[in-house]
Design goal:
This is Glutamine--tRNA ligase. By secondary structure, this protein is α/β, with parallel strands linked by helices. Among the domains are: 195 residues, HUPs (Rossmann fold), CATH 3.40.50; 98 residues, Glutamyl-tRNA Synthetase, Domain 3 (Glutamyl-tRNA Synthetase, domain 3), CATH 3.90.800.10; 110 residues, Beta Barrel (Ribosomal Protein L25, Chain P), CATH 2.40.240.10. It is 26% helix and 23% strand. The structure holds adenosine-5'-triphosphate and magnesium ion.
Amino acid sequence: MTTIENNMSSQNFLRRIIEEDINSGKLDKRLWSGIPGPSNLQKNIKKIDFASIRTRFPPEPNGYLHIGHAKSICINFGLAEQYNGSCHLRFDDTNPDKEDKEYVESIIEAVNWLGFKWINNSQNNLYFASDYFNYMYEFAEELIKNDYAYIDEQNEDEIKHNRGTLTNPGIESPWRNRPSEESLILFRRMKNQEYPNGSLVLRAKIDMKSPNVNMRDPIMYRIRHSSHHRTGSKWCIYPMYSWAHPVEDALEGITHSICTLEFEDQRSLYDWFLEKLKKIGIFSDPLPHQYEFARLNLSYVVTSKRKLLTLVKGGYVDGWDDPRLPTIFGLRRRGYTPRSIRLFCERISVSKSDSLIDYSILEQALRDDLDIAATRAIAILNPLKLIITNYPINYSEICHAPINHHDKNLGYRNFSFQRELWIDKYDFQEDPQKNYFRLFPGNLVRLKYGYIVRCTGCRKDSKGNIIEVHAEYLPDTKSGTDGSNRIKVKGNITWLSSTDAQSVTINLYEHLFTKPILDSDENNFIDYINPNSKKTITALLEPNTINRDIKTWQFERLGYFIMDKDSTDENIVINRIVTLKDSYIKN
Ligand code: ATP
Ligand code: MG
């Protein structure tokens, strides 16, 4: 089930294609005026494109971006970066019913946060497909005039029925061979708001018997009397994806149009439209080409926009940026860094075959990113008192711990050692299990950065719950002193002194689902929501950990943590991003 795609052969299939294209010289003479448009417009300016390739990330602004989109973003922007090309951020806003400005803004913020730029050589490559509605309409008229498209009066059900199946050819529409002039008039009237929704469509005239169902006279335009978030009520006809997309790519001079595998069957249609537009003289070589890669499937998460919407609207999570969601904003709030997401995308690589990526690969990318630089601190998630019975009352000593073990130059943290300390309750077992090296009666353990102690027992309440652990310290064994290596011990536990530990709220997150593979279960994914996916506890934190500049830490022996965006001075809220791989403290 856990598959890391085999990098060596597949990693570079897109890079290989791009390098071949660059080396062949066929991309050299492309004209690019800096403004999307057909060939005659590019020719007027006569500027050779400075970008070696052009790619694009074309989200539909109908939801928040997720980790799957991050893969597409990293591929498209990453390839452009690598080959001195340009990557366009293009909103594919051709379907007014589901789209919204809110999503446009969130997508811009997410791509920016991931660290990618669409401004290159002072050209701002941020585009909206809706800005091309005039072009799309004009080009459609040209196709009609050349008898490559016609207006069909069949209703939706008839069209669907007459499309045929994989085994049966389709049936030609009775309107298929009407004169072009008639189609043209109807198309203009369609645009002029004269017909109700669903009454007419514009179809490409290709081949109703094609083995590829997509080629059986696909619909190019349908009537939708809906207001669009950018064009308002100007249009009542909207282009279908398969017509709009090749036109958008060609207008923008895209060289490599990279998309996910489900569009493979659409490639011949993509090429058909562009070939016809070239023949008519609207576009010229080199035309854009479509290439497909396997979408990201990640265990324990859902990435379908519809399912994410159900989770948010149904109140199963706390909004689009809930730290348990695989949305970019959820990952950001959880504590994932842009670098860790980019590292993850690099590691999973690009291939043409579907696979399931284990969530742990994403977690490891975060650990690898944060390990080197994260400030260390101590936190106690399940506090239990430890009394050092032979240590003087009202006395304390300062202990030192490196801010980061990888770079001692960063200096040291200080905290005090006293008679009354806090430890984690999982660091004591009255009756130790096999291979348990931490506190149990008679055992010697180092209190990290402090003294070696010998556990002497514990105290219980009337119900038998352990309320205090007792130990005696061995003077002379303080870390950093000459005697510290005098005795070797196997257990090394973290602690805080009872007077200077700071109380904070910590959210402990687990997978949102109890089942690793969800996407095949269409509607019952809600049944697999993990009831323990968020646990909020009050924990204790090393003094002076909270300061203005640092918001992400490694809490020793526990994992990586981040200050939540809702944290205030009065109520400090911290999210656990991920545990350390070999963490043995349970919660
Ligand atoms: P939905 O979840 O509604 O199907 P979508 O994935 O089609 O949405 P778009 O906004 O059309 O969303 O996606 C923009 C780009 O991101 C597309 O090129 C799409 O192929 C790519 N993309 C979307 N999901 C993934 C994924 N899981 N892995 C890789 N690329 C993806
Ligand atoms: Mg889509």
